[in-house]
Request: fold
Amino acid sequence: MPESSSKPDTMDRRSFLRTGMGGALFLGTVSVTAGLSGCATSPAGDGYTALSDARASNYQFRFLTKDDIVLFEALLPAIVGPSLTEDPERRRIKIRETIERVDAGIHQFGPANQKELRGLFDLLNFGLTRVTVARVWSSWENASTADADAFLKRWQTSSIGLFNNGYIALTKVSNVAFYGHEDHWAASGYPGPPQWAVDALPQFKASA
Reply:
């Protein structure tokens, strides 16, 4: 593979969500509306502790907002499933560290793909579209793993391309951030992410 294909700006020349003009306008409108409605619009910053974890984190979030972190707290148990330990403390730590790697990876994406992902996350965080588009009635903070799994399956099998691509984006960044870390390979019996996944998301390889 040519050297240039592993650079972050290469991905920015491809639309990560492949939204098309209509989808891009829709996501942009949602982001503006979500911001006006009071949804978090700034990165969570330094020391934000996911899942009320007692162990302080010095990681500085540079892309994910506090609402995004809550979203991934809800989605990760449904996406990575049994690979998460049942021990509550270790489970919280694994989820928190995976969310940090998601943030670190997206931070290295180019502006165009960051804009698409911001629109996707705002779509899921904004109460009106969370209910009408994602069909998740409770806040993500109160959503069960069964709720998150049902949402993911609806978007995976949807006839609407934006939802299909949104599902792919959510599961791809989550799986690479989780399984791309060597601490999880032995526990899952997984030898490491397939090379095509690493090549597709080189940002996560650098942040693992």
Summary: The two ends are 21 Å apart (CA to CA). Residues 3-207 form one domain. The chain has eleven helices and two strands.
